[in-house]
Each structure stands twice: as C-alpha cells, then as structure tokens.
Amino acid sequence: MSTSDVEPQTQPSSEAQALSEIVTWANSCPMWQRDALRRLCDKERLSQEDLDSLLGICKGEQEGRPITAEHVRDPSASNLEVSLSKLHNLQHVNALQSGETLTFQKSGLTVIYGDNGAGKSGYARVLKQACRARLPKDDTVLPNVYAAERGIPQAEVSFRVGGQNQSVTWRQGTTADPRLTAISVFDSNTAAVHVDATNDLAYTPLPLRVMASLAETCKTLKSKLDDEIRVIERQTPAILNSPDCAPDTEVGKLLSGLSSKTADATVEGLAGLSELEEARLKTLAADLANDPVRVARQLQGQKTQIDKARDRLKKLAKAVSDENVTNIKQLYETYERSRAAAALVSADLFSDEPLPQVGSDVWRSLWEAARTYSNQGAYPDKKFPVTDEEARCVLCHQELGPEASERLNKFEAFVLDESKKREDEARKAYQAARSALEATYISMQDVQAIASLIRDNLGDEELANTVKRCAVQNSWRLRSVLKTVGLKGVAIKATQAEVPDAEMAAHSEGLEKRAAGFVAEKESPERKALVAEHSELAARQWLGTVKADVLEQIKRLKAVSGLKKVQKTTATNKITTFSTEIAKRLVTDRLRARFAQEVARLGIAEQHAVELKHARSSAGIPLFHVRMMSNPDEPVGKILSEGEHRCVALAAFLSELSTLDTPSGIVFDDPVSSLDHIHRDRVAERLAIESLNRQVVVFTHDIAFLVLLEEACRETRDHAAVPIAYRVVSRGANAAGFCNTEPPANVLPIDKVVTQMRRHLGNVRIHHDRGDQANWRREVRSFSEQLREAWERAVEDVVSPVIKRLAKKVQTDGLIRLTVLQEQDCHDMRDAYGRCSQLLHSQPGELNPRLPSPDQIENEIAALESWAQNIRGRQDQL
C-alpha cells in the first residue's frame, strides 16, 4: 500500500484535535473502553492492575470513569501563546526540597542541568503531568519514600497566556488548567517514533498509539474472557457430558438443548418419579428383562456350541469306524514290512561294524544331524559326506583315514537305498494317520460340557445322556484302537456307538428359528411402545439423582452467555474505522515533507535518507514506518544508532509542531543520547533556532550537550544571538532539587566567570577585613582554584576559532585568528597561572605566610580579564 492510499481528503488535524475527536467518539463506546481511553491518554502502557480493573468494568462488577475533555490536550489552547514562568511551592514531590523555585526565561532557551539523582527528573515529571503529556510506564510522581509524612504530590505552576501572568495549582490525580496543554513536551520514551516488536522504526502519532493500544486491550480482554469461559466450561460434570439416558427421551432432549434460557421449572417438572411411576418402572423392567436382541445372541451362541459338538462327535465316530480301523492297521503293517526289509539290508551291510544297530531309528537321527551340520556349517560347499583328503569327521572332528571314509560312504549309500526310502514313506503315512486319529479324542471334561449344554440349555435330558454315552464309548474304542493297532490277534473290546446326529441337528435348527423370532419381536409396535415408556421413566428417575448438577449447569451456562455477550464489546471493527479516519488527517503530505526537512537539518539524511511511509495495519490500525529510501524493506531499527533513532524521533516531533502554527513553549526532556557525540551539535543548533520563535526549555544531564547549546545560541551569520538562561538542579545532604540560576562554571564565558569572581570577592572581603583568618584562608584557596580554571577556560576561548572542546572537527578557516598571538601573551599567561598557584604556598623559611589581600586577588582577576579582552579584540579586528 503506497502512502497515497491513506492520503486525506479532509482538513489536516493536529494531535490535540485528534485527541479531542477521540473523546467525542468515545461517547458511543462501552464504558470500559471509555475508561481505557482515559488511562491510555495518561500512560504509555496499561498495567496488570489496569487490565483487571477494566475487565471488572467490562463485566459490570466495577464503576467506570470515562474519558473527558479534561484528560487530553485542549485543542483550543493551540490558538494561545502560552509560556512557563516558574514551578514553585512543590510539596511531597519525590525527594525535592520544599520551598525551591525553578524559573524559566520568558523567551529564548532555558537549559536546566542536573546530574543523575539531583532532582531534575522530578521537576520534569511535574511539568509533564501539568501539561497532560503522556507518561512512560512507571514514570508517575511519587512522594518522598523516606519522609515521615507522605502527602499527595502538588506544585504551583506560574505561566503566561498572551503576556498575562497566570498561576494554577497542580495536584496528583486532578486535572491541571487546560491552557497548559498548549505547552508541547518531548520525551523520547513516549515519542511518536519508536522501535516496534519487529525491530523496525515505527511512526505512530499519539492519537493512533492510543487507538492501537485500545485495540490491543480489546484483544487482551477478549483472551481473558475466553479463559474465564473455558474455566467455567471445564466445571461441567462428566455425567452431563455423557448422560445416562436415551437421547430421544424428554430428558435426553432437555440435556442436549440445555442453555442459559432453560427454566429451572422445566428441570424440576421432569426430575424424579411418583410412587405409581416407580411401580410402573419396575413392572416394565421385569417385562422387558429378556431383551430380544440379547436373547437372540444367546440362542445363536447355543446353536454354535451344538454345531461344534455335532462336528466333534461325528469326527470321533468316523475315526473309530471299522473302515478306518482297518485302514490304520494296514498302514502299520506296511510300515513294519518296510522296516524289516531295511533291517535286512542294514544287517548285511554293517554286520562287521564295531557298533550295533547301525541303520536303526536312533542311528538315523544321528546321521541326519551330521548331514545338517556338514551342509550348513562344516562344509557348506561340498556334498555330504565329505571324505576327500584332509577331511574331518563332522562328529568327532578327527581326520578321516581311508577306512573311516569308506565307512561314511557306505552309511550314505544305505540311507539312499530304495528299501530305506520305502521304510520312511511307510512310517510317515502311519504316523500321519495315527496323529489324525488321536486328534479326534474327546476328554471327559469336554464330554461333561457337551452333555450339560444339551441338558441345561435345551432341556433334553435323554439326548444329553445319549450324547454322553456315544462320546464315552467311542473315546474308549479310540484308546483301544491305539493300543492294539500293532498287536496281531488281539480284538478291540469296545464297539462303535452311533452319533444322534438327527436329534442334535433338529435342536440346532430350532435354536436358529427361535433367535430369528426374537429379532423380529424387537421391531413390533407393542414392544417399541413399552421400551419407549420404560426409557422415559428411567431417564426421569436418573434426572432426579443429578438434578442439582443440572441446575448448577444452567447457572454456568448463564454465566458463559453473559461473558460472551460482554465479549462482543471487545470487537475492534469500530476502532479500525475511526483510526483510519484519524490517520488520514494526521499523516499528511505536509507532515511528510516537513519530516524530510527536519531529518536533513539534524544531519541524519547525510548518512541515511529516510522517509515516512504507510507500512501495514495491525488490528485495523494504520501503521507508519520510517523507511530507508534506498532500501525500503530493510528494518531501520537495525541500522540507526541510538542517537540517530532519537534524532528521527525529534524530527517527527518538530514536524508535528509545524502543523500547529502555535508560538507556545516546548519542553524537551533529555532530547539527545549521551552515547551520540555525532549529532548533538546539530540538535543543539536546531533547538537554538527554535528558541528564536518561542520559549524552549531543555532538561539535560549531559554537560557536553549543555556546552553545545551555549555555543549554538551565539550570534552567527545564519541567525541572531539566542537568549539563553541556565538553571542548575543539585542535590544536598538530605534532599534534592536545589535550584541555582547560575550555570556550571566550566561552561560560562570567560567574561561571566570574571563577573562571578568579582561578585563573590565583594561578598567575602569582610572575612579579611575582620581578621577572620580561617574563613579567609578557605576563600583564598577557592579563588586560587577558580583562577587556574578560568585561565584554562580563557586559553580555550583563544583557540576556539580552530578547535573547540567536544567539537568533532577542526575549523581550519579559523586558523588565521591564531596569528594575533604573540610570545608576550604566552609569557603573561604562564606568569599569571604561576602566581595563582603561589597564592597559598609559603616561601622558604616562612612558617606562617601572609595571606594575599582582596586587592591582590582583584589584581589577578583584572589581569585575566585584560588578557582575554585584549586577545579577543585583536582577533575581532581580523
């Protein structure tokens, strides 16, 4: 979005006018927003206490205090010429000394200097609040924490309106005179230009910052309300999330549609049963106890068990049938014949072997194990048995001799012989048939279970006994077959029993029909009506047990409904629309052009060409950023130093002032960074020029900046001399805030230093005249030090056309002014400097030297004055 996208089509607005419009606009806002705007116009950020209080107002738990015209700068004050006169009668303001008066020069520049902890910031805070300037977080005026009595901070502010003297009393927590809002205050901590969360340099005029903070507060309160809603919703009992009732009952419908509008009487009417209804519920429960679906499942299960029993009985009967008995005997006989034939071959082949039973089953197992080890471990790449040269026995690992090799080959030939193969095949066939026969065995435990199923579930005692006899008899026959299969001439004692298959099949079919019938019964209208009646009564009975929980849940739902209704007041649509209108009237082409001029005047444009551009919107609030003209996408906050950042903020402030066309005073609180030695002189020059048109007050703790301000106020080819006044705020033993109208000696011009010393000499001469040696000695020591410092300052003035203290460059065009210096000037200076050092030093042999008289000190002051004036006069003639 380009800057032209937000260009206004209406009359440009000042900050005070925009704030006044916010007050009017707020009349249609919820009370909590009006209260939030009041707080946001007073402080940079809302504390957690503020947010909690606003949440209480939002929920109707606290009374709100809306923003009014007295909480913002008076737009009509911009038409007045207002300047500060003095700040006095301070009481309970930090640790400032009561009775002190801080005065301000009527026009030009007033520089208020104070070291850290001297009390300078206390005076600045009072002025900020009296002029309704926005305060940084935690920058409120506090009473003296060490005082026994802590009253409410207050002070008297004297000022001029159109040349007429006025005076008002400011008191913490009350609104000061609206005319004081014509005084503009610059504080880098609350400046319109600031580093945002993306490390970019944002330009946000105060009205837009107030609206942006309001939008952010809306989001914060919405989140807090969301948290409260979640806490309430988590209190819902689990039993109500999964109610123990059918959803199609009246109770089920009530619970599924439970809301804040549900009447308690509706719950009371459904909860619980009368005695007649309780009796009816018991009757229905008994009649419907056999649930058709459940009974059908039981019958299907019984049918499955009967069918499995039939199958087992039939398999057992078939296994012990005469045909199957004959078959297994034949298989056994075939196996015996094959084994005998293989034994004959083995006896013939291995009769001479040293060990018996070669070729037996035990031997064969050993041989096959040897084969497996050889093929998979010892000799995987050679055919078993391996009997070549250097081969070893895979069982004993001894080297094979010719005899052993021959024996192994003979063993393998026997194993591969056809007779042995026939033996193996016959054995496998017999073993398979025997295993299948053994698998049909039914244990006595299983026999009892089958009989019980038929007797207990089907009620057929006779069939249960028949099945039991059949299973027992055929199981006995099976055991007999297994015992006698290899015995010739031994008869099988037990005979085969016939399975009552038809009777069991009939029962299976009957169970299936009954199950189908119960399933069909479930769908009948009569049963459905009984089930519905039972469900309704059971649901009401259950509701009676949880009635208290349901009534509490309705209260919770009402609370949630109320919170959601309140939450609608946190919508930001209206804020967005109004903020866009303000932005169009505040950030104009005129402001952007003036910003570019101010940036250039402060020297930023020489290194970084920057401009104001519309960047984006956050929560609907138009945001403007300071952008590099050569690289708009690079965050400026990463490029500019702290000093450059403060210069850009100052440029924005001065640009905003240019749109007001008002001559009222300006207050600057530490306008430069003590870390920035590059731009301080440009800032000093800019403030000096501004002081030609209006009263300017500067609070600073930077002595270097104070010196630069003094130099900038001197007459130049570009501007006339600027009236400058100094105020020094210092700290005493037990208090701070002592005010002095004289500047620090190390920044005074030499002529003023001379005047001060002469004035002081006149005040303390009485110590010498009265013979008060102790006090006069102290004064002489002081004058000695002052004179030495004054001579050093005089030398600085002489060479200042070329090089100045704290200057960042050498003025080569002033070199010619040093040509007036003569050798005698140097001798005079060194002689006088030496005499200053001798004022308190005794001569050899003197134990109690005579102190110099006031006239001698006056002579030294005169020598200094004459030397400085003489050289300055010669320089001025060039």
Features:
Rad50/SbcC-type AAA domain-containing protein, Rad50/SbcC_AAA, ATP hydrolysis activity, about 900 residues, disordered N terminus, four-stranded antiparallel beta sheet, 4 domains, six-stranded mixed beta sheet, elongated, P-loop_NTPase, 14 strands, alpha/beta
Q: Would you mind describing this structure in some detail?
A:
It contains 28 helices and 14 strands. The protein folds into four domains: 4-224 and 576-666, no CATH class; 238-290 and 526-561, no CATH class; 326-434, no CATH class; 748-878, no CATH class. The chain is elongated, with a radius of gyration of 56 Å. A six-stranded mixed sheet has the order 6-11-12-3-13-14, with helices on both faces. A four-stranded antiparallel sheet has the order 2-1-4-5. Strands 7-8-10-9 form a four-stranded antiparallel sheet. The two termini are 59 Å apart. The chain is an alpha/beta fold.
Helix segment count?
28
Number of E-state strands: 14
- State the separation between the terminal residues, measured CA to CA: 59 Å
Note the beta-strand portion. 5-15%
Q: Would you identify the regions where 5 or more consecutive residues have pLDDT less than 50?
A: 1-10
Helical coverage, percent range: 40-55%
Largest sheet: 6 strands, mixed
**Structural class of the secondary elements?**
alpha/beta
Average pLDDT score: 82
